[in-house]
Design a protein that fits this description.
249 residues, Rossmann fold, 7 helices, 2 domains, elongated, 6-stranded parallel sheet, binds NADP nicotinamide-adenine-dinucleotide phosphate, single chain, alpha/beta, binds ligand 3Y8
Amino acid sequence: MTNLLILGGTTEANALAKILAEHGIPAIYSYAGRVDNPRPQPLPVRVGGFGGVEGLARYLKDHAITHVVDATHPFAAQMSANAIAACREAEVPLAALTRPAWRAQGKDRWQHVSDIDAAVTALTGPARRVFLAVGRMHLEEFAAQPQHRYLLRLVDEPYTLTLPNCDVIVSRGPFTEAGDRALIQQYDIELVVSKNSGGTGARAKLDAARALGVPVLMIDRPTLPQRTELSSVTQVLGWLAHPGVNLGV
Ligand code: 3Y8
Ligand code: NAP
């Protein structure tokens, strides 16, 4: 009997959850518990960490999980690494549902940096108006460059702010190009800082930056250990029905 664990938190994970619910395929959707009101799902939901690799391996056994789909964000590198190790230990098949990195095109003015720290270093220099659209979890690193005027976009109201000189927008995606063009013009943004998240939910700011001729500081995604990588919900359904894997539904 199939019993799928989705490591969620992305547009792709939500699309998979919808299809599995429609097909009546038993599955559990997992959030880390990063935001106050995560989007409701048409599946049973669990919230919170598992307690590292051992905790996840134990969860898989205790809940008779037959398959794991890691549909977390490309920057959720710790979760993805843990999933690989725990599924190996518990001998549970694992596949990642991921999305390709964005690539600069046409008149894009992108500067690539390898990680968050390199992005902070790249911000050395005279004060600018910077759209820091990388969420909340790594904001304190940017306090090393306090000279800039930052525009932050957060999912939840911040309790404290580590950046002295900033405006805050509380808004969760998916975002639109028109909305992000208006934002960039309203705050007279001179640079957009973005993770190379891929997908559709966060790319609006890049399309807006291209249209307005604003440069982008693009943070490359972390490298992950080898795993089965799928790029569509259809591929996941095919993987679940793979010969030798008894769906049992
Ligand atoms: C808790 C669960 C959907 C899926 C919504 C996607 C798209 C919109 C765009 C910008 C970039 C950012 C951020 C972003 C996007 C989708 C998707 C995506 C980027 C939710 C969600 C959870 C989170 C966690 C949150 C992080 C933060 C990152 C905001 C739900 C809404 C910046 C990533 O305050 C915090 O602690 C926020 C933490 C991890 C990165 C960071 O470092 O702060 N996502 N985002 C998940 C959990 O608890 O397990 O409520 O839906 C999900 C989504 N956020 O169809 O509705 O699929 O990527 N999420 C980035 O890409 O840079 C915003 O502002 O332009
Ligand atoms: P991370 O740094 O890779 O993970 C840190 C720890 O958080 C993990 O070891 C695990 O704790 C817990 N965790 C992460 N994702 C989880 C999930 N889906 N279910 C249960 N526990 C989870 O992860 P992150 O970058 O903070 O991302 C957290 C969540 O936000 C994920 O759902 C991700 O898809 C979503 N998200 C992240 C980003 C981003 O930019 N990072 C963007 C959009 C959405 P234990 O070790 O205790 O198990």
